[in-house]
Amino acid sequence: RLNAFGYWIFLAAGLFMYSSFLVGKAPNNGWFNNAPLANSQFTPGLNIDFYALGLIFLGISTTAGAINFIVTILKMRAPGMSINRMPIFVWGELAFAFSIVFAQPALTAALVMLELDRKFGFAFFDPSKGGDVILWQHLFWIFGHPWVYILILPAFGIVSMIIPTFCGRPIIGYTWVVVAEMATAVIGFGVWVHHMFATGLPQVAMSFISAASFMVTLPSGTQTFAWLATLVAGKIKLKTPMLFSLGFIVLFVVGGLSGVMFASIPFDQQTTDTYFVVAHFHYIIVGGVIFPLFAGLYYWLPKMTGKMLDERWGKTSFWVMFVGFNLVFFPMHITGLLGQPRRTYTYLPGLGWDIWNAIETVGAFMLAFGILLTFVNWFRSARRGEAAPDNPWGGDTLEWATTSPPPHYNFEMVPTVRSLHPVWDQDELSHGRQSPERGGHPLADGHETFASSMLDGRPQAVMEMPHESPWPVLLTLALTVMFYGVLLDAYALAAAGVAASGAAMMGWFWPKGETQET
Ligand code: HEM
Ligand SMILES: [Cu+2]
Question: Cα(174)–Cα(158) distance, rounded to whole angstroms?
Fold first, then answer.
């Protein structure tokens, strides 16, 4: 139900923010929305209120989702899946979920302060009344930098699943990769000021952050070398998911290198707010996150839908995307060093920027075409894709032990895990259901599941799966009313929304004389 709640809030908050387009009031200060530009004095109108309230609203969903991931990962694993047998993808999810729980409050606090400033005459970010504009940047980036790792940690996880499968061997340095993921998440909280090197902060503070930013490269490097070592030691099968993963390694290394360059304060002060920054974050977000997402799509979609994707279309899509991507974003390093400010699309001739921008435009069309090829592939597969076997790639993790697509409850027999690579090491798992003699647990045809101990994955209790419930969606509707009420200064409406939310929560948690499932 928490999951359903997260889903509905995500939808409602998204619609809330996009409704700003319908009334021509879309947020208009860029994604970091710096004060004092965001103060009502300089940006009147509902635009920024849509941004701030919408993100507070969305934060509820993000937090609910993250808590749900943490609890599920720590408490509901299959019997025998001790914490050192968890797939690296799950570690990535755990790391990112913890980061969200700690990062989101900084953003929410900043947004609440901003709305108090804008609607009620507070002055958190107004220096003329004793406020501080830099405070916004601190709070935003205390959220913002961990957020970039929130994006990339699951992507690391995806790649760490795919590379071993297509190398036909376990990843080298499992423990090191796991430690690196967790360390990245932790260090990510100590580097936010590297987005503020040009704001005139004290030298000591900046030096500390600079050192911490250099330090982040240690866990990133550890993981990169673990992937490379696995590639060297394995027998590589070049299927589409693997191609996207290899492309990821190349692009992530390039983006990481420009990141390290920014960690040096004088270099950053020269290049901040130029296209060099745009090049950095696209290498690391498109190359480092979107490419792994495509890899994951090709890898897991057959499991989800039971239909294979076409390899020829997939490989073509990869190469067009890879070449197109580099054509768009590599020249941005050059225009950035030549001084072209970010967020400019028109400029005087003769600055030496023209040819590079022309190449970028061509590349952009190519990249879009490459992405389109994958979407076409997706539609083709849905209509007439080959049927997917249970384990099309020879993967080692539990999802490959059930049918493609799996039933709603995943396993009729909840399997017992005895290895880090259950499907490789427990031969009974590659032939249908695990029999009760080998440890399979028939649990009311999947309508029940185990609660297990955090470290050893020992089953502790049998839990009934939750029944359908109207409360998450009703609570979401009530909150939507409240947020629109605040947005429009209609405080009676907002109060009604609060009251309705309270009622919905009472309905949700009312004792029903059964085990309470949330
Ligand atoms: C090797 C580790 C990394 C380091 C040392 C690093 C460093 C930096 C620095 C110093 C900046 C600020 C540049 C400026 O505005 O002057 C920056 C910008 C940025 N980085 Fe990274 N970065 C790293 C990895 C990442 C990752 C993994 C992501 C995302 C997945 C990322 C996403 C971004 C984004 C989105 C921006 C631009 C923010 C804006 O709009 O101003 N970075 N990075
Ligand atoms: Cu950063």
Answer: 14
